[in-house]
Amino acid sequence: MPTTDDDLRAGVEALRMGNAAHARDLFTRSLAAAKTPIPALLGLVHACTVLRDRAGRAAALDRLLQVDPRNVRGLILKADDQAAAGDVRSATSFYLAAIHAAPPADQLPPDLATEVRRAREICDQYSAHYQQYIVDQLAVRGFDAAKSSARFAQSVDIVLGRKKIFVQEPRYYYFPGLPQIQFYGREPFPWLTTVENAAADFREELLGVLNDPGAFAPYVQGDTNRPRKEQMGMLNNPAWSAFYLWKNGDIVEENAKRCPRTMAALRNVPLACVPNRSPSVLFSLLKPGAHIPPHNGLVNTRLICHVPLIVPGSCRLRVGNDTRVWKDGEAWLFDDTVEHEAWNDSDQTRVILLFDVWRPELTVEERNLVTALFAAIDAHSGRKPEWSI
């Protein structure tokens, strides 16, 4: 009496010989007693496909995906059926499920790797068509990404999958209720133009410091009293280094004396003064080819200001979804508790003046209370905190 395996092998041979009807019968019989029905179900799907038996193919596919919901072949075949029926949304969901379930291409049979690649291409086509449709419909209603609300434009990019949602994720202290802004406009900072106008003085004093090879030290330094953290390759790495005028709330007297005009130009800036913690004011140096990996700052009660001083081309900063290129004479402020990273893809060193200021949304009372909070934390421990900008 033929066994389940005999029926399965005979069904495969019948398909190979072009007898799809007999193959369908053999696969159906094999399923009656199969302990692992997946091969027979796949065979049945193919036999029904050849016979143009849509109902039989659909039933076999549904049963296959009930038994093995992550079956890559089954998911793609199901997606193809949904696409043929004009149900693009359902098709996309099955194609994406197949893509997510598939192992790397080098671990797949060549024919299945080709099918997964096809699924990706179809999803890309669907996505491009959908995005263009939405943009066209908005244009009819007056939306222009270059002129309309920048916040709404970003929301469109997020809903279309072009950008991610980035929010404040401070590593130490979170102050609720502050706006989620990556790069700030100039309006809240009336002192910014004065600082930009002093850039020539900053640069002149910086050049004097650069003549001293030992003046700069790695930005991320280890502490022998704490476990070693590699900091994504930045620990003790001179590719990203600093010369501090203020550090963690204290003036670095020896360095400040070398840059008196820089110190004077910042007197009227609302530096985020919190004893033992801030401000920090420094020349930040990034060597050619260096990359500062994605990271988040410590507290969201401040913003970081960059004043470009030596900025070759191909130097950029990403904050959340927004990537910008440093330009001479153009300072900016950003929220460093939003994930950010930086690159120097040029063959020259990049140097900026970097300092932290109070967020403009905080009242004077709130600034004083934040300062009092950190003072209480430090008083309880009886020692200076681990801190860096």
Question: Care to describe what's here?
Answer:
- The chain is α+β, with helices and mostly antiparallel strands and 389 residues long.
- It folds into two domains: 125 residues, Tetratricopeptide repeat domain (Serine Threonine Protein Phosphatase 5, Tetratricopeptide repeat); 190 residues, B-lactam Antibiotic, Isopenicillin N Synthase, Chain (Jelly Rolls, Sandwich).
- The protein contains 13 helices and eleven strands.
- Strands 1, 2, 3, 4, 6, 9 and 11 form a seven-stranded antiparallel β-sheet that branches. The chain has a four-stranded antiparallel β-sheet with strand order 5-10-7-8, with no helix packed on it.
- A hairpin with a 2-residue loop joins strand 2 and strand 3.
- The chain starts with a helix and ends in an 8-residue tail after the last helix.
